[in-house]
Amino acid sequence: MFDRYGGFATVRRIVSAFYDKVLESPELAAHFEHVEMRRLVDHQAKFISSLLGGPASFTDEHLRRVHARRGITTGEFRELVALLRETLEDFDFATEDIANVIDAVRRREGVIVARP
After folding, report:
1. Angle at CA 42, nearest 5°, toward 40 and 46?
2. What is the C-alpha separation between 52 and 9, in angstroms, rounded?
3. Confidence band (pLDDT; 50, 70, 90) for 67?
4. Would you state the pLDDT for residue 87?
5. CA angle 25, 60, 96 (to 5 degrees)
6. Arithmetic mean of pLDDT, 14-19
7. Biggest CA-to-CA distance, the chain
8. How far apart are the C-alpha atoms of 85 and 90, rounded to whole Å?
9. Which of 45, 94, 103, 106: disulfide with 15, CB 3.0–4.6 Å?
10. Helix/strand/coil (H, E, C) string of 3-61?
11. pLDDT band at 68 (very low <50, low <70, confident <90, very high)
12. What is the C-alpha to C-alpha distance for residues 95 and 92, in angstroms, rounded to an integer?
């Protein structure tokens, strides 16, 4: 999928569009008030690239450590997933590919969500 959708250049645009949506979300925006977004977009582009079969990789332990103090709730996680799905649809991802990416993200809920 990584190569089929244009590699890092496309993934970076997807992630930028995704965070535009996240920052407009009343439920999520507060998590990013003091975050250096350029750095976050770079990291998230690598993470999404890894989900698409690209050359980056993230362990569950890394994800757990990065998100441990964020206090992300189950509801907020679901909102993030919905916005990611919407963004992938905006970029004309195939339905099956969207399902694969969303499934990969959902499998990591336990290392991202801090509380129900």
Report:
1. 115
2. 13
3. confident
4. 98
5. 65
6. 97
7. 36
8. 9
9. 45
10. CCCCHHHHHHHHHHHHHHHHHHCCCCHHHHCCCCHHHHHHHHHHHHHHHCCCCCCCCHH
11. confident
12. 9
Percent of the chain with pLDDT over 90: 75
> Amino acid identity of 89?
E
Q: At residue 115, does pLDDT exceed 80?
A: no
Question: Phi/psi of residue 54, each to 5°?
Answer: -80, -175
Mean pLDDT of the chain: 92
pTM: 0.91
Distances (CA, A) of 22 to 57, 76, 77, 85, 107: 23, 10, 11, 12, 20
Q: CA end-to-end span of the chain, whole Å?
A: 32
How far, in whole angstroms, is CA 70 from its chain's centroid? 15
Q: Rounded distance, CA 46 to CA 54, Å?
A: 8
Give CA 2 to chain center in angstroms.
15
Answer yes or no: are the C-beta atoms of 114 and 68 closer than 8 Å: yes
**Token duo for residue 62:** 């890394």
